[in-house]
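User: Can you help me understand a structure? I only have the sequence.
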Amino acid sequence: MSKMKTHSGSKKRFHKTAGGKLRGRRANRSHILEKKSPKRKRRLGRPSEISQSDAERVRGLLPGKAGR
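Assistant: Let's start by predicting it. Here is the structure, written out as tokens:
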């Protein structure tokens, strides 16, 4: 049986923290930035923890990196 391959798009977008949680980029940071306040844009620029329901899907795409 061959090994499971890591989803190459996911490994570029998500990373695992030391505690085992998954972090990734926030949404709403790519366009229509003029109307957003500088404070909001700074906050959106920092990575955040992935929600529990999404984290389960991402873990399936990252079998080697994120662990099951």
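Now, to help you interpret it: The longest strand covers residues 14-16. The domain at 8-61 is CATH 4.10.410.60 (Factor Xa Inhibitor). Let me know which part you'd like to focus on.
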